[in-house]
Amino acid sequence: MTVPIGEPADQRAELTGWGRTAPTAAEVTRAVDPAVVERAVAGAAGTGGGAGRGIIARGLGRSYGDAAQNAGGSVVDTTWLDSFHRVDLGSGVVTVAAGVSLASLMERLVPLGWFVPVTPGTRLVTVGGAVAADIHGKNHHVDGSFCSHVLDLTLVTPVGTRTVSPSSDPDLFWATAGGMGLTGIITAVTLQMIPVETSYVLVDTERAPDLDTAMDLMLTGDSAYRYSVAWIDCQSTGRRLGRSVLTRGNHARLDDLPARIRRQPARARAFSPHTLARVPVTPPGGLLNPLTVGAFNEFWYRKAPVRQVGRAHHMAGFFHPLDGIGGWNRLYGPRGFLQYQFVVPDDHGETVRRIIERLTTVRLASFLAVLKRFGPADPGPLSFPAPGWTLALDLPVGHHDLDRLLDSLDTMVLEAGGRVYLAKDSRVSPATFRAMYPRVDEWREVQARVDPHGILRSDLGRRLGLCTDRPSAPTADLPPADTPTADAPTTDIPTTERNPA
Amino acid sequence: MIDAVGRPQSVLVLGGSSEIARAIVARLVPARCRTVVLAGRAGPRLSEAADEARAAGADVVETVDFEATATSDHRELFDGVFDRWGDIDLVIVAAGVLGDQSADEHDPEATAAVITTNFTGPASAMVAVADRMRHQGHGRLVVLSSVAGERARRANFIYGSSKAGLDAFSQGLADSLVGTGVQVTIVRPGFVIDRMTEGMDPAPFSTTPGDVADQVVRGIETGAPVVYAPPVLRLVFAGMRHLPRAVWRRVPG
Predict the structure, then answer these.
(1) Closest CB to A496 among B54, B63, B87
(2) Which domains does chain B possess?
(3) How far is the C-alpha of B206 from the C-alpha of A5, rounded, in Å?
(4) pTM higher than 0.95, yes or no?
């Protein structure tokens, strides 16, 4: 394939998600400008190199599983789309290219008094990825998920480039929110930021000696806080099962800060966090085992004050504690890790307890276990958040029964009417996925409208049965005239038997 | 796709009626594997293996005629399999025969037949399959080698050398696939008590198809480049390799 002058050549690369499991190889296209994205999508539909195996966008690669991988096909590296198109400091409405990270939004706009409406536990995600996963933060019970704050987005689809807003094309907008990139490649996003006076959060910290106390405190107290999260020790058992440290807070106003910071308004709004350390190499597996994780959990619980009120914490430390350590995902060793995050409705808090009990009985060490409450869901058919409890567990791959254990957790979550988060998932089965996301057919209808030939594909989509590479499959029934994959499947294989099904 | 905990959704077996392969498929289907394509010599044993996969609950179970020695057909055959059933996550290379050493070592044609079936044929098939896996950008090749290939032994050097060739070929292929999303796992079982060894006295550390399959499934999960079954043979052969030849050639078959 000839590359236009000034355009970088594609590069075959092996990619994984943040969990560093299940690597696959794809042609990586650097999206140095939105026109490159349009050409790449057109190319994936045509006959050139990489055609026939589809295309997907990739941002900063923080999805834990296979969402931003496309084995044998094209992956568009959108981190090159990093410009700020328009910033209205009066209203807090910003339009940025999709590859802009939440970190860079914060670094530029917090000092000017505007914060992102929703941030996950890492700021190292792109705005495009935030839309595709419809991410949530510690404020979901108050503010909802990311896409509730998106005013419009530019979406490059196989049938053309569209500007989509919740009012102009609600179906496509909400299919894109949480659609894991399978409705098109987002190139720009307009976002309503929220006003802040400082870069600090006033945090109340308290220890809860067991899970019931923690859940009670959250049920009764969360409404007083914009941000709320509980860190749970998933190893303590018996009376101390699910002992937690709750950290809840609100944005600090200038008057709330200690005098030494208040005196320097620039410092009160500063946002320039540094990486404190970097994991330089991948250590051998087994570093994070029940023993070391147990010791950490004990330390973390003891270190937390029994109760502390109104302490000013900088945003970076409060929202993104792990961003201070570059490449922390390597600590899990060469086999990597996965995150299991689910949500169950409010009246199924018991499921959370049963799942934590299961983890303690198999002595599976979860280094980070985080419990949050979700508020009302947004209309996205594949959007994850729904009212109730959400628990996120980081688990090292390697325990020989991990696969069966997580399948049994899936069953418990399903029975409670819950679901797992696709941005974290790397192992759920197609049938379980369909049961957890009953509106998937509604989503597919909208998806087929912008991608009639099934060009948008990812490994996650393949694994869940949302996309296929088989030329005989229904999605390829109406291929464009110039696609060689449209040829009838080879029929001259000597077949000795046919399955009647 | 093979998921984060190593479970494939589709499998192609070369040598579909192999007992070890059947035991592997029996373990993969209840996990995530929905598509099973068994390539082998048409006959009751292949249909039996297909019935077994169906009974285990696979959605799509197909058999295709595969003759390891018919190398000129391999490209077309495997292109057809990949075109028809889509991505294949896991390919198990299980075609092989033991031969009859004491008779074969005086029979040039029989010697060539064992080596073609165990080495030349599988190597040709693996080249065809590896091209498709490289193209699809993911997958795992599991190659059933043998500890007999670690060091050729007086009592079974025709079989042993054929497995040595296959093993060395697979190591090289594995290196050529680094960075392509495709990984190779070489399996070196010891004496397996099954149809192939019927009537023979089990050697020390003998194993069963089920035990080998357990080790293979674990190897797929961990991404191990080499799997011994039973695992202790890794140590045993680390020692055996250095036995003086005068001693080694007296090790009975």
Answers:
(1) B63
(2) 10-248 (3.40.50.720)
(3) 63
(4) no
